[in-house]
Amino acid sequence: MSLPRYGEYRDSGVEWLGEVPEHWEIKRLRTVAELNPSKSEIAELDRSTEVSFLPMEAIGDDGSLNLDRMRPIHEVEAGYTYFRNGDVALAKITPCFENGKGGLMRGLQGGIGFGTTELIVARPRPSETSGEYLNWIFRSPAFRKQGEASMYGAGGQKRVPDDFVRNIAWAFPSPMEQTAIAAFLDRETAKIHALIAEQEKLIALLAEKRQATISHAVTRGLDPDAPMKDSGVAWLGEVPAHWEITRLKHAASLIVDCPHETPVYDEDGTYRVIRTANVTEGRLWIEEMYSVGEQDYLNRIRRQVLAKDDIVYGREGERWGYAAQVPSVDMFCLGQRMMQFRAADSMHARYLMWQLNSLSTYRQGQMDTVGATSPHVNVRTIRNYVLANPPLGEQLEISAFLDAETSLLDALDVEAAHAVVLLKERRSALIAAAVTGQIDVRGAAQGGHA
Predict the structure, then answer these.
(1) Residue 403, Cβ neighbours under 10 Å: how many?
(2) Is 360 helix (H, G, I), strand (E, B) or coil?
(3) How confident is the model over 33-42, as a mean pLDDT?
(4) Average per-residue pLDDT for the chain
(5) Is 236 within 8 Å of 360 (Cβ atoms)?
(6) In contact, 365 and 382? CB cutoff 8 Å
(7) Which of 351, 414, 349 is nearest to 388 (CA)?
(8) What are the residue ranges of helices labelled H in 125-174?
(9) 191 Cβ contact list (under 8 Å, min separation 6)
(10) May I ask which residue range the UniProt record assigns to the signal sequence (predicted)?
(11) Which of 28, 286, 294, 386 is deepest in the core (most CB within 10 A)?
(12) Residue 235 pLDDT exceeds 80
């Protein structure tokens, strides 16, 4: 159902806040909460007492907390941020602030916690507000937008100043009405979160289906009744009896590693740099690529020009093992961690690309990456990848089949991803409207649907 607006509004006197319900009061945050409370209030505790410990990675973008870590007080009191149950924390450093990292502190060991120094902590004054309501203010788009505008510092070290939180003006209803708004948002955002989780589960299942479809087609073929034989290679298992086994160095007429220096990016450059971040299974995300100028492009292609239908392959980093084809010539060059392959006459380029994306090929590269902090597959290992080599006619059939099947799966993936975006937008809009008084949720707070 649609939610009503309040009966009467007035100008808040705050440009970005606009009109607010007539009975809401404009207050600076420092009047409703204490910022960064002193750890001296736990001075009497035994220093060996264990408390919750929250590094930044333990704080979710959705307000969730991972409370698995604990430390004795004496290990954390000198260099970390103090908080206790009922406090509200928010990340102040970019991009954690913009992403919404922060949350209401609850369930802490002994009611006490310490965490990253990149947190601002607000302790609500019970007569003015609650942790639940304050947390929703901090998660609202309007608060985040104003915080981003106040950031100081450069690049990845930009931070929201404590004074921004201390001095920001907000409109507050009565504590009772705040409780109703917080309860409404708890319930309605939980529903939206459940819908988002369903779509994200679908996206994960589609990715699994996509990989399974690719791997089966390039190692088992399309004929379920074809006689099989042991390939003699553990990663491949059985393959159709009439297929041959080859290695990448024989299936490719050209194997080129990237120049081992970082490109000089140029926003106005004409040429696109293919990085590992731009490649997934059979897909090249051109719109997300960085650019370089002509001189750096010529430097990047000094070993070999990237021709149409050449295969690019990531061999380092968290996103190694993906391959895609180049759609045109004279536009692309290899970024760091990338390789270039050109199919031999005996191997259809599209089929080779699909096989490089298969699980059987990925497992061969894993032998170089086990235990590595930064995964890295050696060129020698890649050159000796063992591949299935069906007759050229079957390679064409398998490629056409995978193009069709993955297109269907990709369409479903795009639809699910779009649904997630819309649901997140709906959640943000709902939070924004509720905590700025643009909707009256008092009637809906006890039940019903938004």
Answers:
(1) 12
(2) helix
(3) 94
(4) 93
(5) yes
(6) yes
(7) 351
(8) 131-138, 141-150, 162-167
(9) none
(10) none
(11) 386
(12) yes
pLDDT of residue 159 exceeding 70, the answer is yes
CA distance 119 to 315: 36
Is the CB of residue 112 less than 8 Å from the CB of residue 84? yes
Q: Which residues pair with 89 in a beta bridge?
A: 103, 121
* β-pair partners for 11: 19
- CATH number for 25-172: choose from 3.90.220.20, 3.40.50.2300, 3.40.50.300, 3.30.70.2190: 3.90.220.20
Homologous superfamily assigned to 222-389: DNA methylase specificity domains (3.90.220.20)
Question: Is-contact 290 276, C-beta < 8 A?
Answer: no
Residue with tokens 């050229």: 392
What was the pLDDT predicted at 447?
Answer: 55
Q: What is the largest CA-CA distance in the chain?
A: 81
Task: Report in angstroms the alpha-carbon separations of 39 from 11, 35, 51.
Answer: 40, 12, 13
Closest CA to 27 of 131, 161, 144, 125: 125
| pLDDT band at residue 374 using 50, 70 and 90 as cut-offs | confident
Q: Kindly tell me the number of DSSP H helices and DSSP E strands found in the chain.
A: 12, 25
Residues 311-322: tens digit of each pLDDT: 999 999 888 999
Q: What is the mean pLDDT of residues 13-17?
A: 92
Cα(247)–Cα(6) distance, rounded to whole angstroms?
71
Mean pLDDT score, 14-24: 94
Do 154 and 112 contact (CB within 8 A), yes or no?
Answer: no
Task: Round to whole Å and give the CA distance between 320 and 332.
Answer: 19
Whole-angstrom distance, CA of residue 357 vs CA of residue 354 = 5
Does the pLDDT at position 76 exceed 70? yes
**CB distance 120 to 36 below 8 Å:** yes
Rounded Cα–Cα distance for residues 20 and 17 (Å): 8
Q: Which string of DSSP letters, residue by residue, matches 193-211?
A: HHHHHHHHHHHHHHHHHHH
| C-alpha distances in Å from residue 17, one per residue of 121, 131, 145 | 23, 21, 11
pLDDT at position 449, please?
46
What number is the average pLDDT over the span 284-306?
93
Quote the tokens at residue 143: 């608060």
